[in-house]
Design goal:
The protein is α+β, with helices and mostly antiparallel strands. The radius of gyration is 64 Å and the shape is elongated. The termini are far apart. About 10% of the residues have low confidence.
Length: about 220
């Protein structure tokens, strides 16, 4: 077949196809049993999901380059000091406590006097032969606080009043006349005020010319 013949054959085939389509479309439209709306399914739109509003940035100062400065961390609460870091309390002031010293205590200095037993005495013994230049020096050690104190002397005396001189450290002499209970085994007492400094003190008991009393013990308070 020549080229011209093939062209006319193609045109004729195209025209026949167009005619067949034209005849078919009215038939579809005129068919009452055909529901075009049911044949075409329109997809339903998805339900809208409410979106949470995005947080609006809090206003902040910007630096010179348009950048917001990094917020500084909030300060942590202060921690209360532990008991061990508390300031130490002031020490209690020193106090004076009653001092008792036996006349026969080995720490005392004896100058030509002697110790003898005395079951009825407060310390169970006493110093005898005091006076006429013979003496007893008592050492009071470690006094914590200075002040005016009371010195009570326990002594025995028989045969009438006898003299006794007392000197505290290098202070003034205190002269006493002691009668007692007229007994060498039944102690009596006499109390005199004395001034004691802090530390150690010496108290001297003596008489230069006469025989004196026997000494039992001393109480300072």
């Amino acid at each position: 077949m020549s080229v011209a013949g093939r062209s006319w054959w193609s045109i004729g085939s195209l025209a026949a196809a167009v005619l067949a389509t034209t005849l078919a479309v009215p038939a579809l439209v005129s068919d009452p049993d055909l529901d075009l709306d049911a044949s075409v399914t329109t997809p339903s739109a998805p339900a809208a999901v409410p979106s949470s509003p995005s947080p609006s940035p809090s206003p902040s100062a910007e630096d010179g380059f348009g950048r917001s400065p990094t917020p500084s961390p909030s300060p942590s609460p202060s921690t209360p000091p532990s008991p061990s870091s508390a300031a130490p309390s002031s020490p209690a002031p020193p106090t004076f406590r009653t001092i008792r010293i036996a006349a026969t205590d080995p720490a005392n200095e004896r100058f030509r006097v002697e110790a003898t037993e005395c079951p009825t005495c407060a310390s169970g013994s006493r110093i005898q032969y005091l006076g006429q230049g013979q003496a007893l020096t008592v050492h009071v050690r470690g006094v914590p606080v200075a002040g005016r104190r009371q010195l009570t002397i326990y002594y025995t005396c028989g045969g009438g009043p006898r003299p006794l001189d007392v000197i505290v450290n290098n202070g003034d002499k205190v002269s006493l006349s002691l009668a007692g209970k007229d007994s060498w085994i039944d102690p009596a007492t006499v109390t005199i005020p004395i001034d004691l400094p802090v530390g150690d003190t010496e108290i001297r008991f003596f008489h230069a010319t006469h025989s004196s009393v026997d000494l039992d013990q001393f109480v300072i308070d």
